[in-house]
Amino acid sequence: MDTSFIHNYRQLQVVVCILLLPTLFACPSDNDCTKTITIPQVYFVGNQSYTQDITQEVPCDYPEPTEPEIIEAPVLENFTYEILSFNYEPYTDTNTTRVQYEIQLNNHNNYDVIGIPILTAYDGHIEFSGNLSAEADEPCNEISANSSCILSFNKEYPVDPAIPPSSTYQIVNVEYVVIN
Questions:
Q1: Largest separation between any pair of C-alpha atoms in the chain
Q2: Which of 12, 57, 148, 168 sits most deeply, having the most CB atoms within 10 A of its CB?
């Protein structure tokens, strides 16, 4: 075999290695630089706040968050409800207003959930939403996977003579806000 061929072949190998070496150890451009940051988020249900953190990949020059991001309360997907019973008495014999209901809350997900049922009601004049589970006999703050819970409520409230109770009161919607 010709030694000049072998010598030229080795020189070619060295030249190729020298040309390719910088590309193997090249630093990425600033446009390719990314980092993972934690973004604090907060949402409100009634007068209570809940926080959660999410992570996100951003460019290296992206500023770190200093304030929590205010988001909408996360509502449980694959959720249904059924009003099993509802009784509203604007005036009882004891000069109170009585509200009674049983609502079946259904979690159709393959995971347990911790949260708060939010009822939207209409009193004949305005529509309002709120968390009544703190006063409920069964608050349903946890619902197992593919399961249901009966939210039961039975309370009487004193009638304020300055603000007579509405003669109409109905539940128009139920949502389940996730807090886990």
A1: 117
A2: 148
Rounded CA separation 29/21 (Å): 17
Pairing verdict, β 69-70 and 34-45:
parallel
Residue 53 and residue 82 in contact, taking contact as beta carbons nearer than 8 Å: no
Paired tokens of 175: 């949502």
Amino acid at 140: C
What global pTM score does this model have? Answer: 0.71
